[in-house]
Known about the structure:
The protein is of the alpha/beta class. The chain has helices spanning 7-22, 46-65, 82-88, 104-113, 161-165, 173-185, 208-216, 235-242, 260-266, 272-285, 304-317, 344-367; strands at residues 2-3, 36-41, 70-75, 94-95, 143-147, 149-150, 169-170, 190-194, 202-203, 206-207, 222-225, 247-252, 290-297, 321-326, 373-381, 394-397, 409-412, 421-429, 434-438.
Amino acid sequence: MTSMGCxxxxxxxxxxxxxxxxxxxxxxxxxxxxxLLIVNACSFLDAAWQETVEEVHRLAGFKRECASKxxxxxxxxxxxxxxxxxxxLPEVDxxxxxxxxxxxxxxxxxWCGEAGTTGAASPVHTDPFAGFEQRRLLTPGHTAYVKIxxxxxxxxxxxxxxxxxxxxxxxxPDSVVREVENLVAAxxxxxxxxxxxxxxxxADGTRxxxxxxxxxxxxxxxxxxxxxxxxxxxxxxxxxLFSHTAVCRYLECPVQHASDRVLKRMRRPxxxxxxxxxxxxIREEFPDVRLRSEVIVGFPGEDEDDFDTLKRFVESMxxxxxxxxxxxxxxxxxxxxxxxxxxxxxxxxxxxxxxxVQDASAFGLYGRERHRVHRVLVDRRLEEPAPVYPDCAYAxxxxxxxxxxxxxxxxxxxxxxVGDFVDVRIIDSDITDLKGEVL
Length: 439
């Protein structure tokens, strides 16, 4: 099985594999040995869709060598591509839309009994959270993603997620807590809560802050909150979440832009002033909070003044890390038909210029970490020396760094083991990573 795209897709992949194991399948990393080939697709951007098509064609090569193999394409299959799926990818035996992993077991059973059965894309009629509670992790055993909702009900003009994944559905809180309890029992030290719009979580009378209260009671060491919508973030919510020592003072908050004019065209329900007010109030109360964000450059109609506003905002915010995306017109979204489309060359130039601004900002922020002592979760032993810090044998993260998203803390010292927490004095830094000595 190939998993593509974001951590939310990775959770779905883990659930798929767990459900398949439950009906007697064994998993292999070698496509030549497999009877069933699965691609969990990402199609959030056109480039991701092209990568998905290439991966399907790659695996189809193994299928051509052995006619009995079956090929499934699941994951982000956007509805605006549904009519073209069969024509574009005739090698695929079954298309499964997002949240349909619960159909895998019956599908495999059908194939075992009826060779040659195929199927086209069909709507979801199963639990989108099937297989979540007993997942076998594809992440290192000490850290895990926990998805608490599926889909999104907002109407941003640039985003196809509501079309791809549907409206937001929140997972039952009891199911989430049971999963975390299972993860803690298996030795997991950190979980990252995932949802497309996590601050809108609501199920069985439980809101996000209530859910976090219950999760903390499981004894998990670290809880990280990802994808906080700026329109719903308030100082009061941050205060409630950060009241728990187990909750990392880290917020992944995708602002997308800082020009009020562009934000209005994006249908983002906030202004630059509100962002500055909310972030400022949270930082005043929690000076050690780390903010990560994402922005889009080259959105239709973005002019030089808009871009200068975004640059000044990024410079002043001191984000610990920043995802910079060039606007991609997604079929079926309002923004794709807007006037004022920015050329690819200008988008690339602006992205590079903004990256320089962010690098300078992050260099200053990370430079102030020197001589501080942080609790670091050890992620891995280095297979080869790190280019910047060749004397370090291990790498981990402090609370301000999310797994596979942000930088790392490279470690020197003795008695270091993967999955452990260690106290570390920071002795060097660059724009993404830190170097520390274990105390």
